[in-house]
Amino acid sequence: MINCEQASTICNKKQYKEATLLEQLKLSLHLMFCKACSSFSRKNKKLTILCNKAELQLLSEQEKIKMKETIASSS
Length: 75
Prior knowledge:
By secondary structure, the chain is an all-alpha fold. The chain has one domain (4-74). The protein is built from 4 helices and no strands. The longest helix is centred in the middle third of the chain and has 20 residues, at 35-54.
C-alpha cells in the first residue's frame, strides 16, 4: 500500500499521462480507502479540464528572458 505523499505524486503523474499501469493501480486502491486523496484527485482532474478548456499559452524563451530583464532592472 502507498502512503498519501506517494499517492499525490502518482496523481500528478497520471494528470500528465506519465504514471505506469502499476502506479495507477496502486493509486486506485489507495483512493478507495483515503478520502483526502480521493478529494485531491477529483480536484486535480477538474483543474486539468479547466486548464485544457482555457487553451493556455506559454511564453516563448525570448519573452521569458525579456520579462526577467525587466524585473531585474526594476529592482
